Structure prediction request, 585 residues.
Amino acid sequence: MNIQQRIAHVLITICGVDVIAHGRSQLIPDSLLGLTEVAWHSEKTGIYLGSPSVVRMPNGNILTSADRFGPGNHLSNCSVYVSKDNGSTWSFSTWAISQYFSNLFTLPHDAPNSVYLLGTDSGGKAQIKIALSRDGGATFAPEDASILFSLNETTDPTHHGFATGPTPALVASDGRLYRAYERCHVPFSWGKGFEAVVVAGPSDPQNVLDARQWTLSASLPFNLSWLPEDWITKCDNPGYLEGNVVEAPDGTLYDILRFNSEPNVLGNWAIALKINIVNSNTTVTTSTSDRAPAMHLTFHKLVPFPGGHTKFVIRRDAHSGLYFSLVNPNNNIEYTDQRNILSLSMAKHPSGDVGGNWTVIYTLLMDDTGFSADDSVRYTGFHYVDWQFDNPDASGVHQDIIYAIRTAYRGAESYHNSNRLTFKRLSNFRQLLVDENDTAAVHVTGSNFQISPFCTGSGCLAFTNRDYVWTDIGGYLGVQASEGRWSFTRIAGQGTGEPANNASISVAVQSAGSVYVINDGIEADWLIDNNFSLLPLMQACYRDTKHSCLSVFRKEAKVGDTFTLPQKKGGFAGTMALVPRAKLT
Prediction:
């Protein structure tokens, strides 16, 4: 047993509870959510699991990490876990001592076993700290760690240390490594006392631990003048924290922060700061105190952002250019802090400047405990999620999303005081990215149907003979539909005892691309015979007595392909074509 393993054993003994994953299948029993439990902590100890992070190593292993908080916790250490079977089972790997609020990441062109933790050295009055493991997360040696910015960096008596959450470390297009933090202002008050800062350092593995090569922005306090006047009276404790450094398509860097808007009647907003590079000189100095601010932050805008009231992580998909985040949308203003729903949201620009605002495109997790709505919000939380794109295909395009969750579930004393660290995978997330630009141009002919807007809400009728309206259209398709960009072949519903649907719909492909239809699966043989594939993450739902949903199917078609959509031999809905308005010829 090496020294770090012995320290880990002592720490576990002190805690009095085994929080180490057991190295076997760990799907949580008596649950419908498919959560794999990485670690659990007894609620009675007053020690809770926080700050989850996740990374895939070059050798295929997946690492997760967590720290501890609560009245029973007196240690500022980070535990690391490893899965060698793609996330099915987990085992404890090591402790990173005096490492807190940290995110796991790797660097390009680094040794294959190198992995880093970047955060702080404690949970209060903290210094900014980075740590390196040279053996794939098996150990984090003290000599491979650096304090990047310390408490004695400044003589400013208002400086109370740094805070953060496990938010991403970004290697930007300029080759520098960026990370958002918050400076704690004295006298400190949680929420109001946070001032945004950004650090930047070398992404070169040879120099990333050298504190002299890192720079710190000037701090920016929260300013009430950024808010509409009528908001100020609605917020008890306005402020911001737990920022994400994100690069826009034009190379502009932003710090997108959680907006603390207690009592969260404004819970679905974030704040975007622009990061202005004012000093690109990265010359090594002899003392960290000689480093002039290389950046300053300016307020950019309030961002409509589902779940902006709690910590989130934003990442950009290199293939589509879209931005994604896993969020806790606040869908009931009666609740001051709602974290019992986890959703995938998407935008074309990190601050919503181009192509529309952040929009939820898929619900990942909802409480299945049977709690009342009030108790579910009170006791269940799927929050502080870190995540990564995963499972690249032969061309390097990632097909999945893996995520680590600070989980308060089935036994937690509150939604905040999480008793579990869990892991989950969203497979084939690109099914959600139905895009009009990738579809085939088609010519539709026939009888007894209408080309109608495919949209949601009032006036968006799903059938010609019912007042049912579309209420929920999944994925990016739903975003485009809300913008009036899609149509569908609306037909009559066929209820019990009603005449058979006599619609005739023929589709002729004019340019190659994807063709989409909606159907409830009764015509499965025809769909299979015609090479249509079910998109299991996608649905189109309408409001009837049961909130019924139809499935979405896709095929890749070439010029000249023709097919006639089958209608029901029984049941209610026939097969309808989905076509972007711009692709109808």
Summary: The two ends are 71 Å apart (CA to CA). Residues 7-18, 282-290 have pLDDT under 50 and may be disordered.
